[in-house]
Write a structure and sequence with these properties.
The complex is a heterotrimer of chains A (266), B (269) and C (353). With 266 residues, chain A is an all-alpha fold. Chain A has a single domain, classed as MetI-like (MetI-like fold), CATH 1.10.3720.10. Chain A is 79% helix and 0% strand. The two termini of chain A are 28 Å apart. Chain B has 269 residues and is mainly α. Chain B folds into two domains: 43 residues, no CATH class; 201 residues, MetI-like (MetI-like fold), CATH 1.10.3720. Chain B has twelve helices and no strands. In chain B, helix 4 crosses helix 7 and helix 4 packs antiparallel against helix 9. Chain C has 353 residues and is an alpha/beta fold. Chain C has two domains: 155 residues, 3-Layer(aba) Sandwich (D-Maltodextrin-Binding Protein, domain 2), CATH 3.40.190.10; 150 residues, Periplasmic binding protein-like II (D-Maltodextrin-Binding Protein, domain 2, 3-Layer(aba) Sandwich), CATH 3.40.190.10. Chain C starts with a helix and ends with a helix. Chain C is globular. In chain C, strands 1, 2, 3, 4, 5, 6, 7, 8, 9, 10 and 11 form an eleven-stranded mixed sheet that branches. Classes of the chains: A mainly alpha (266), B mainly alpha (269), C alpha/beta (353). Chains in contact: A-B, A-C, B-C. At the A-B interface, helix 1, helix 3, helix 4, helix 5 and helix 7 of A face helix 2, helix 4, helix 5, helix 6 and helix 7 of B.
Chain lengths: 266, 269, 353
């Protein structure tokens, strides 16, 4: 019965994509790969992408871990409210959120005007169309992906273990660092992985918020495909991105169980 | 506070003790960071200025009027609803069936699981150009069915994950009991399993709807000109227009999302 | 098959049939509607709004042919459409050079000059595969908030001078509206711009590259960026600045050393409503619509007879007004048509560095 159901899945999806992958070799795709690797420009874009991805992941972690902790340890009503504040942005269109940042970060946008009127700034800061703007926007969009996995893991931590540690003589800080944090690591790993992998493939946010030097792989792919009609190079880029994404996922899967991914959606 | 109340409070706070107030402030600041941009779009959409400027010099409904009065925006909205509804139907049906199938272990199950989950983590741009390349050959670019198919693929993992999680939570003995009493597989499903997982299925459907309605990257490539979806129209609008009609649309979209999530919360209750 | 499978297949079948039915119900409607519907792609923003008001809507009312709009024009997309056979645009408003490029790349339908009356149209813009829509200029635009006393840069050399005129700037992400300015900034006299010394132009661009952030891609952007305060200087299409002035923004432009050029209507090869497109072109080249759009946004009409119907203010702000035209450089679309593809590739690589 469900054989027909997932024949649908197995048929539709991979077929769609694999067939296209096979279309990647109409024009001696190895030559495209050679162009890709040989050109310092494209390599720069890859480096950019990784830089931005790493920065965004670390910031998301720094902001997300404490938030997840507070969420996990709050009372039921408060935590429901806070969760809503995390989930509504998560499901709001990325376009809407990026547009909001365009409005906020301009030279005469809310942030600059606010900082200036409070006397913290003399002249507006360039917050838009540069690495800073892209980073802020991406952290905002991806933060829920970090918070939710960590939160769900934290929720599952048995506080008895902490009580036990304290009974054995550890103070609160030690209990936290030595027991709680390691127990939350799998959530941390899942969240970081999700954020990093998503960041690598981001398109809308860097396209709208970034400057010339912030071109990421996805934008380059779009450029090649829709502007320059260079399917050979565009596809090569896509395949490389895909390989990196898949590689990362498989590598981390070795260390954490895939079941965690299932628990991601609230 | 009485010492008994205090003791209870401490007990409730758990062995981690009371959270440091700085931590709470930090958490609230982070939440503000998450929510603030959504809030900003609202006043802009009511701006009386003729182009995007902040703060708005006055209030007016002109951008909403513009949106509702524009043939392009309205057809894009209609299109988005069309696609989202069809996608929800397809994804929920196929996804639920798949979740059921994945309950029993069978050869290659983990591989299937991987494939099903893949759209969640594969970058949208790759999916977009892969589908675009394929559709260009099959002449599916700009067609309704093409877009529905693409969105179904993207929404499927959500459905499967949620329904699977729900399935894990139900008591299988109920199904076994039904079967022992003579019900066949379909009857068991329809009369026992489905009612039990209904909240999960409805949640999944809602999320599939949102996923399709808000989807932008694939739509940019695949939806074509005549049949642009709302996000595609917004993408063009942000880049080619100078007026805040996009802000009005954004506000409406935030409203729709909040509504859908609110429904979801009610269903879960 | 068990009954469950059967039910299931039925369910899936109904679903597929339903979605197919929806598409089918549209399909015959679509074919039928083809002749009654024209998809026009233009540049968006204030310009397309003016076109909508003065051309698309009146044309629809008069002829009953429904106009579906698309934007922005993108030569790459056009090429992709024609080459893949998925032509979605029936009529496209392109830059002058793209008529030549499009002819070279075999992407266009020849125009039917039996239907289209070119009486009164400047011969310069009449081409086998395209006909002019309006004259426009790419000019130096500036924020009047910053440069309120006429102290703005008046030449490209001054625009390039970031010491005398510091501040954020934006330029177009496209070689077409930049290389001539780069040469002018390097003190190449206006009558010696073409054929262009490309190496020299790129070297000149190198000098200003780092100051430009962001690089605009759509016509609305430079006007928006100026009015936002995001930049203080920009290159922009002339009409857009007037449009945003009308809405109260503090921006203005300088005609000196501007680049005078024109847009053309082209019909992609394989367009699904060729006849409708020809009809529209014939209709819009008449003096009345030409005057109407010039009065709405000050771009120059391609039909001389339109001048009788144009307001004095519009006549003054037009790029083709004698006062303004004499200070500008006239573009050479043939040179561009020849070199466009190579230059776009080079530009993209250059920008990434």
């Amino acid at each position: 019965m469900p054989a027909l159901a997932w024949l649908g899945i197995v048929f539709v999806y991979p077929l769609g994509r694999l067939l296209s992958a096979s279309l990647f070799t109409p024009t001696l795709s190895l030559a495209s790969y050679a162009r890709l690797l040989g050109s310092s420009i494209y390599l720069t874009v890859f480096v950019n992408t990784f830089e931005i991805g790493a920065t965004v992941t670390m910031l998301a972690l720094a902001l997300g871990y404490p938030l997840a902790f507070v969420l996990a340890t709050a009372g039921p009503r408060v935590s429901r409210l806070m969760l809503a504040a995390v989930i509504v942005p998560l499901w709001t269109s990325v376009l809407v959120r990026t547009y909001a940042w365009m409005v906020l970060l301009g030279r005469r946008g809310l942030v600059n005007e606010g900082l200036q009127s409070w006397g913290l700034l003399d002249a507006p800061l360039p917050l838009l169309y540069n690495r800073l703007g892209v980073t802020i926007g991406m952290v905002h969009v991806l933060l829920p992906f970090m918070v939710l996995p960590i939160y769900s893991v934290m929720k599952g931590i048995d506080t008895d273990l902490l009580k036990a540690a304290q009974n054995l003589g550890a103070n609160r800080r030690q209990a936290f660092l030595r027991v709680y944090v390691p127990l939350s690591l799998s959530g941390l790993a899942t969240g970081s992985l999700l954020v990093f992998v998503s960041a690598l493939g981001f398109f809308v946010t860097p396209a709208l918020l970034g400057g010339r030097r912030d071109m990421m792989i996805a934008m380059l792919i779009d450029n090649q495909i829709s502007q320059l009609l260079d399917w050979g190079l565009g596809s090569a880029l896509a395949v490389v991105l895909f390989a990196i994404t898949a590689g990362l996922l498989l590598a981390v899967q070795r260390f954490t169980r895939a079941e965690r991914l299932w628990a991601r959606i609230p | 506070m009485t010492s008994r109340a205090r003791a209870l409070r401490l007990e409730a706070a758990g062995p981690l003790g009371r959270r440091h107030p700085l931590l709470i402030v930090f958490a609230i600041a982070t939440l503000t960071f998450l929510v603030a941009p959504l809030a900003v779009v609202l006043p802009i959409s009511f701006s009386a200025a003729k182009y995007l400027t902040f703060p708005p010099p006055g209030w007016s409904l002109q951008w909403y009027a513009r949106y509702f009065g524009s043939r392009e925006w309205m057809s894009a909205t209609a299109r988005s609803f069309e696609v989202a509804v069809l996608t929800t139907a397809a994804a929920t049906a196929v996804g639920t069936a798949a979740a059921l199938a994945l309950r029993q272990p069978f050869r290659g199950r983990s591989l299937v699981r991987l494939i099903v989950l893949a759209p969640l983590v594969v970058p949208a741009i790759i999916v977009a150009i892969a589908i675009y390349g394929l559709y260009a050959q099959w002449k599916l670019v700009g067609t309704l069915s093409g877009l529905v198919l693409a969105h179904t693929v993207l929404a499927l993992p959500f459905v499967v994950v949620i329904v699977s999680a729900t399935l894990q939570g139900i008591d299988e003995t109920l199904e076994l009991a039904a079967q022992n009493l003579g019900a066949n597989r379909w009857h068991t499903f329809r009369l026992v399993t489905l009612p039990l997982i209904r909240p999960g299925v409805v949640s999944a459907a809602l999320l599939a709807f949102i996923t399709s309605f808000d989807e932008v990257v694939v739509a940019i490539f695949v939806s074509g000109t005549q049949a642009a979806t709302l996000p595609k129209q917004m993408w063009d609008g942000i880049r080619t227009e100078i007026d805040p009609t996009v802000a009005a649309v954004s506000t409406l979209l935030i409203g729709v999302t909040t509504l859908a999530l609110g429904l979801l919360a009610l269903v879960r209750r | 098959m068990s009954s469950m499978t059967r039910r299931y297949v039925l369910k899936m079948g109904v679903l597929t049939a339903a979605s197919a039915a929806v598409t089918q119900v549209r399909a015959p409607g679509l074919v039928h509607a083809q002749s009654k519907q024209l998809t026009v792609c233009s540049w968006g923003g204030a310009y397309q709004e003016a076109q909508r008001k003065t051309m698309f809507q009146p044309f629809e009312t008069e002829t009953g042919i429904k106009i579906v709009e698309a934007s922005p024009t993108d030569y790459g997309k056009l090429k992709a459409m024609v080459q893949s056979g998925n032509v979605e645009w029936d009529l496209v408003d392109v830059g002058d050079l793209n008529v030549i490029a499009g002819t070279k790349d075999n992407l266009l339908e020849p125009l039917d000059y039996q239907t289209i009356d070119t009486k009164g149209v400047f011969p310069q813009v009449v081409h086998k595969y395209g006909i002019g829509t309006i004259y426009y200029s790419t000019v130096l635009a500036y924020s009047t908030k910053k440069y309120a006393k006429g102290d703005h840069p008046k030449t490209w050399a001054q625009f390039w001078d970031t010491k005398a005129f510091p501040g954020p700037r934006t330029m177009r992400n496209n070689p077409a509206d930049n290389l001539e300015f780069a040469l002018l900034a390097d003190d190449v006299p206006m009558d010696r711009i073409y054929p262009m010394d490309v190496e020299r132009a790129f070297r000149s661009m190198d000098r200003i590259k780092k100051q430009i952030n962001p690089w605009w891609t759509t016509g609305a952007q430079p006007a928006q960026l100026l009015s936002d305060g995001e930049v203080e200087l920009a290159t922009s299409w002339s009409g857009r600045i007037f449009a945003i002035q009308k809405q109260g923004a503090k921006a203005a432009l300088e005609w000196n050393q501007g680049k005078l050029q024109w847009d053309s209507w082209v019909i992609p090869r394989g367009s699904r409503n060729k006849d409708g497109a020809m009809k529209f072109i014939a209709w819009s080249t008449q003096p009345k619509p030409q005057a109407a759009i010039a009065n709405e946004i000050p771009y120059g009409p391609v039909n001389q007879k339109a001048f009788e119907l144009i307001s004095a203010q519009a006549a003054k702000d037009m790029p083709t007004a004698p006062e303004n035209a004499k200070r500008q450089l006239m573009v050479d679309p043939v040179w561009w048509g020849e070199h466009r593809n190579a230059l776009v590739e080079r530009w993209n690589a250059w920008l990434l560095k």
